Amino acid sequence: MAGRRIFNEQGAGAVLRFGLRVVSMRVRYGGDYNPEQWPREVWEQDVQLMQEAGVDLVTVGVFSWALLEPREGVFSFDWLRDVLDLLAGAGIGVDLATPTAAPPAWLSARYPDVLPIDPTGSRYSYGSRQAICVCSPNYRAKARAMVARLAAEVGSHPAVEMGHVHNEYACHVPYCYCDNHAKAFREWLAHRYGSLDNLNAAWGTTFWSQTYTDLDEVVPPRMTAAFVNPSLDLDYKRFCSDAFLEEFLEERTILKSARPDLAVTTNFMGFYRPLDYFQWAAHVDVVSTDNYADPADPEWPMYSAMHYDLSRGLNKDVPWMVMEQSASRVNWRSHNLPKQPGHMRAMSYQAVARGATGVLFFQWRASRAGAEKFHSAMVSHAGTASPVWAEVTELGSELASLDELENAPVEAKVAMVISWPSWWALEAPGQPSRDLLLADQLLWVYRPLYERGVTVDFCSPDERLDRYDAVIVPSLYLLSAGQAANLVSYVQAGGTVVASFWSGIVDECDSVYLGPYGGPLRPLMGCDVVDVAPLRSGETLELKWETGESGGGVFWADVIAECEGRVLARVTGGGLSGRPIVVESNYGDGRAYYVGSRLDAATTAHLFDLVPALRGDATSSRGGLAVERVVRAGPNWRYEFLINFAAEERELEVGAGGLELLTGVDVGPSVSLKPSGIVIIRHPVT
Ligand code: GAL
Q1: Residue with CA nearest ligand 1 atom 1
Q2: Which of 32, 74, 437, 678 is most enclosed, with most CB atoms within 10 A?
Q3: Active site includes 324?
Q4: Is 628 a catalytic residue?
Q5: Centre of ligand 1 from the C-alpha of residue 146, in Å
Q6: Whole-prediction pTM value?
Q7: How would you label 154-183 residue by residue, b for 16+ Cβ within 10 Å and e otherwise?
Q8: DSSP 8-state class, residue 536
């Protein structure tokens, strides 16, 4: 669920490929459908209402293990078959879920090792969902049996279009510290390091007398007296992400062997720290994600945009979709504010603007009972009388007319590099500042780009970057030699990199690259970072650009010694006075900017103005958080999405204008957008 997860833990006739399977589609629309919570007479009504709302894809069965296997080894699929028949009869596609995120009570009661253990050695209880030890042989065997039976019984049902494995892997309990995990971790380590000597060397175990003489001495990072060895901790995070992935792959293989053409996904959670989604996304036919940006946060549009830019970037070779969002309120924050009228629609269009091929909700019908009964749904407790229903049906009918966007990818010329292992290592205890969080580093650079209407693709440091005009590298603390070579060769070939402090500090094992900081990234730095000096909260670093303007930084200062780069800005006060803080260097045919502090907003804007790709559309009136602008560019047309998040009407210039897709009316040279107003203007490619 989002608060816990964000940074903490095509119309009739159109055809879109979902992985291997070709499905006839528009922008898909629907949600989690949990008919098991309702008597059969409600199902008929559901299907009618779904047709009214333009729903054409529903996730079915995601939490229904206890009904599908009511007793160990006794299966019951008739009810599910009836549901699928009903949906197929109404032309509604099914995203068939495996129910393995919610093991039934009989399973946890009979095989307690399926329940995870916390770092102190306490076992979680059942009585909720997602209390899973993914290394439990009992859990694995029962999950395999369940999925095999599901695939055999209904996998080939004509309603089934997609396979939805599990639900939000690692949500609620991302780490288990049990003996089964310890055993599997040792096997993972043996495979990774080959010998105990290699492991001891990689983990720097001579520090604090941590040398291992037998692999069996290695234990998960359970509760320790002081900081746990950060290299161990890092590998444990890698291992836990891999362990969940292994279970996902097991389920996926079973689904695909029963039905090879099935497009398989599992719903991600945006910037969810415990799982390395770049690795995961390589194994899905569709990236899907759950977005619960908080309506109480005035910056929710930016958070939502960022979440979608990540989802699009995780695997650039497959489509992506929103698997879950809320129609209005959630029920798991301390105060669950509703979405304001128009915001659900605007957030849905943000997704479409940023390339989504589907917009789905949790959930179709609001529950009568259970932990989420006060969570909003497409059909509220008040039924069709709720204002949410009007919004839901309006959106459903609009999305049906957007099929021409299918071959129009999002235009993004700027990349932002992130890496999960680097995130894990960066936030381990024992850093120069305890407040060093990747989220803050990303927001520092993403926010001004969002405000300027610069669309960003999130990229892994392992992928080719040559399609981008500029690449931003915010505190990429852990960097392998290969990843650094990728960045360096991108610049050599003419690219532009903007890299911030605390990048290239350690290798894959979390050992420091000696010499001035930066390790294999140093060819792009143009200066020597000889030490670091974090600032106190509220403290500012004063600086002056070579062109005379003043500026400032917060949070951090590198101690920089000049070398071959051109110093663009220097510190002007305090102990670091006179030292470089922003340095530009030419490398090969390209250019790099190194930034030794978290520049304040105005100073960051000054820096970004120096880089053409980061300037955005300075001439437009669209700037600021108020109006979001994204372009999708096809072979013949460019589709300009404008979404007004301001509280008041905005008048915007749109050049020669063109056909507005939602109204079918020609607009231009200016358009007027009401609050939450949206236009999609089709411009010819010139
Ligand atoms: C998601 C989850 C759904 C539902 C929803 C509520 O995390 O996948 O099952 O719990 O949150 O916001």
Answers
A1: 1
A2: 32
A3: yes
A4: no
A5: 22
A6: 0.96
A7: bbebebbbbbbbbbbbbbbbbbbbbebbbe
A8: P
